[in-house]
């Protein structure tokens, strides 16, 4: 039996990994931490998680300690997705899933986070730069909307949850919750997809176990 522990920070990307572990039907120990009032993870998290960066999520599997939600996702799928449900074998589908796994951080989060940092540093500057950043974020959301229109609209790739959904959902929830895109636009396909995956049993179990709330 694997000896897996998830170091989970509230209101964070950690939900991606709790959800994936539930999708994979794996047993895992869960350590949850609330954020400090600064928004940062508490010092105990940083001491215990065993990484230099001290960012969540962190996964331990036996003697392996891993950070970066995308890398953790790929590791868990390689190790435990024996039926290749989360990372399909079909080459084209697998490539699309990998594209989304990377885009979750490398496009969606990279493009919206400057606004979050600007808000923390200087409200006036944040307001000045927001329209430019919103355009880039809107372009990412337009891409996602178009991808959903090409498929069944319920999942990003194929006809069931894959690692694409478990990675990208948080990015989009974060963009909507923090109002990082233009507020005069709506992405109905994305909203319907989010409702669908959020209603999934594994996602619901992950939320119930961790207390995740954004
Ligand atoms: N690219 C990393 C980002 C990790 C990250 O920035 N985590 C945030 C939470 S979403 C965090 O730990 N923030 C608290 C802190 O920096 O103390 C990943 O995908 O795991």
UniProtKB/TrEMBL annotation:
Residues 90-214 form the GST C-terminal domain. InterPro entries: Glutathione-S-Trfase_C-like, Glutathione-S-Trfase_C_sf, Glutathione_S-Trfase, Glutathione_S-Trfase_N, GST_C, Thioredoxin-like_sf. Residues 1-84 form the GST N-terminal domain. PROSITE patterns: GST_CTER (PS50405), GST_NTER (PS50404). It comes from the Eukaryota. Belongs to the GST superfamily. This is Glutathione S-transferase. It comes from Stereocaulon virgatum. The lineage of its organism: Eukaryota, Fungi, Dikarya, Ascomycota, Pezizomycotina.
